[in-house]
Amino acid sequence: MSTQQKRLDVICIGRIAVDLYGQQIGARLEDMSTFAKYLGGSSGNVAYGTAIQGLRSAMLARVGDEHNGRFLREALNRVGCNTDGLITDKHRLTGLVILGIKDEETFPLIFYRDNCADMGLIPEDIDEDFITSSRAVAVTGTHLSHPQTRAAVLKALDIARRNGLRTALDIDYRPVLWGLTSLGDGETRFIASEQVTRQLQEVVHYFDLIVGTEEEFHIAGGSTDTLVALKNVRQATQATLVCKRGPLGCVVFEGEIPDAWEETTLHCGVRVEVLNVLGAGDAFMSGLLRGWLNDEGWEQACRYANACGALVVSRHGCAPAMPTRAELDDFLSRDNEVKRPDLDARLNHLHRVTTRKQPWPELNVFAFDHRKQLADMAREAGVDESQVPALKVLLLKAAEEAAHDAGLESKSGILADTTYGQKALNAITGKGWWIGRPVELPGSRPLRLEHGNIGSQLIDWPAEHVVKCLVFYHPQDSVEMRKEQDDLLLDVWHGCNKSGHELLLEVILPESHPDRSEAHYVTMLSHFYQLGIKPDWWKLPPLSAESWQAISGLIEQHDPYCRGILLLGLDAPEEKLKAGFAAAAQAPWVKGFAVGRTIFGQPSRQWLQGELDDKALVEKVKGNYLRLIDYWRAARG
Q: Which parts of the chain sit beneath pLDDT 70?
């Protein structure tokens, strides 16, 4: 199979696990109270990191037949990493790492890897056709520490060598994983061991590229003098050696090892404020592989590698902290002017928007997050508002049936609240739907949040839920009113950035204001962008084609990564919505609708009054929803 025909660029073989990162920076691991769950393990991180750098990567390992194994597979699949070689092990659990960040030099870390799935790799797992479908194989040193995994890795390397594949080793030395420390000491990075040195030197001849820190070359070369260690490694292999020197950068050795560092060329690193060095090496390897496998030369490969490592040390986590290709290229286009990438708003926004988990090219959203309106309906019907939660479960049933009948698949969504809709939210979460939740106090002007500040709310939310915030706004409001609303909207925006939740900002001109010209929507969106608010979604009323053109220009100027606009309904009759759909149909930023009372209003009123049973309610609501879906499809052609 020629290089041009290869379907993969690199297959990563080695550790893949779940990382549980303590969220209280500065606390002892003993005192940690909450943890963030990330994909982890050195090879898993490199498979992920190379995928988001644009390489066609694959992961070859084992994961458990349980929730953590499925989480790792899904995390890799989402970024386009091939998992054909990620075997589900029926007898072992996925490896686990618990770690904390005490300070920039202290990272308490415990590996839970007793007979874990990725250490169950055996030579029979190595398929020659799969290996030769790639241009390269990249392995990490931990899998050389056990006879069974070592045999599997050597089989893969032998196939690679026979078939002309490139081969790379990240030494990835963890003494605890070689049995050299107590089980609880995952933090120690170096313990001299003649046995480990011998076992590494027996295999280094397999590789074209070997990457490690100075300490990792100390173990590979059997000396704590780095240049002496590198010379010892050179005696066993002609591989290119890349030695990472921390914040200084890295040095590439293609031939003989000189006697002094002054005789080497240092590829300088990027200075950043260090939060967490864990994962920086995997990010470095991901960037280096991008440059190496694309034959861009060592200078450019090291630029990628150093920048990837620098960005990761300033962030929480390993894999999720890694830069995407768009983010890295933006950074390198202006690295001289970005002194603190961790504080750079443009870079942080790029990281946020280029690591989204699911595309939504079109959305047909059934909005039943209404609280005040449904409580009023219940009172008018003479029934207790405790009936509303059961109503919302039925509305969800209608939504699911309509989505199935219309073949929406990845184009369906709901807006539902926690006040009355928690059961509906629980039922739909995890099914691949777009799910929005309101945070505003219904009808509030100036804006108020319903359940306390945004941070205390989002800590309990599933990550897939979108924050929907409705604000009644007018450019001619008093300075005090505008500032009060702006400050709260900024707080919501910053909260979403911190938690990782997407934000849908719904903007409506207040009915009480005499001037309700639709031109104000362009003014308001421009104002929010000037404030620095870049919502993932906008929710706006139907407007004229001219207004959509002006708003489209604003989005393209300020945030081309915006998800798009959803049309709101405002209890409009179907014919009016149909006309609004038609006017928006030629605006590519309008991705669909989020309509509520037009769909559920009359049937819900009848159900609350006892005029419809559950089945009839579902049928009526479903029919209304399906008609709107048809109107939108017809408008879009």
A: 1-4, 103-106, 186, 270-279, 314, 316-318
| Other CB atoms within 10 Å distance of the CB of residue 558 | 16
Q: How far apart are CA 578 and CA 630, in angstroms?
A: 10
* CA 42 – CA 200 distance, rounded (Å): 17
Q: Tell me 118's DSSP state.
A: G
* Tokens representing residue 500 in the block: 């990782």
Query: What are the residues whose beta carbons fall under 8 Å from the beta carbon of 17, sequence distance 6 or more?
Result: 40, 41, 44, 72, 94, 95, 96, 97, 113, 116, 118
Instruction: Give CA 276 to chain center in angstroms.
Output: 18
What pairing do the DSSP bridges indicate for beta strands 109-112 and 95-99? antiparallel
Would you say the C-alpha torsion 300, 303, 306, 308 has a positive or negative sign?
negative
Domain formed by 363-636, architecture: Alpha-Beta Barrel (3.20)
Task: Find out whether 150 and 143 touch, Cβ atoms under 8 Å.
Answer: yes
Instruction: Give the pairing type, strands 266-268 and 95-99.
Output: unpaired
Res 316: pLDDT: 60
The one-letter amino acid code at 482 reads R
Q: Return d(Cα 395, Cα 366) in angstroms, integer.
A: 9
Question: How far apart are alpha carbons 479 and 393 in whole angstroms?
Answer: 42
- Sequence-ordered list of residues with C-beta below 8 angstroms from that of 307, at least 6 positions apart, any chain: 270, 287, 323, 328, 331, 332, 335
Q: So where are the chain's domains?
A: 7-353, 363-636
CA atoms of 595 and 574, how far apart (whole Å): 11
> What per-residue confidence (pLDDT) applies to 489?
98
For residue 109, give the 3-state DSSP assignment: strand
Cα separation of 30 and 439, whole Å?
A: 34
C-beta atoms surrounding 538 within 10 Å = 25
Q: Whole-angstrom Cα distance, residue 329 to residue 342?
A: 16
Q: Which residues contact 278 (CB under 8 A, 6 or more apart)?
A: 99, 107, 109, 318
SS3 471: strand
Sheet architecture: strand order including 57-64: 86-89, 57-64, 10-13, 136-140, 166-170, 209-213, 240-244, 249-253, 266-268
> Cα 81 vs. chain centroid, distance in angstroms?
14
Q: How many CB atoms lie within 10 A of CB 4?
A: 5
* Cβ proximity of 508 and 472 under 8 Å: yes
pLDDT the model gives residue 288: 97
In angstroms and rounded to an integer, the radius of gyration of the C-alpha atoms of the chain is 28
- The residue type of 123 is P
Give the C-alpha separation, 256 to 235, whole Å: 9
Contacts of 189 (CB under 8 A, 6+ apart): 173, 174, 175, 213, 215
Residues in Cβ contact with 154 at an 8 Å cutoff, skipping those fewer than 6 apart: 203, 206
Element (H, E) at 276: none
For residue 445, CA distances in Å to 56, 417, 485, 508, 512 come to 50, 19, 8, 11, 11
Is the C-alpha dihedral spanning 622, 627, 632, 637 positive or negative?
A: positive
Percentage of the chain exceeding pLDDT 70: 96
What is the CA 500 to chain-centroid distance, rounded? Answer: 8
The per-residue pLDDT for 279 is: 62
Would you say the CATH fold of 363-636 matches that of 7-353? no
Nearest CA among 380, 376, 373 for reference residue 438: 373
Element (H or E) spanning 437, and its range? strand 434-438
Q: Are 66 and 17 within 8 A, CB to CB? A: no
The reported pLDDT for the residue numbered 266 is: 87
- As its CATH architecture, domain 7-353 has 3-Layer(aba) Sandwich (3.40)
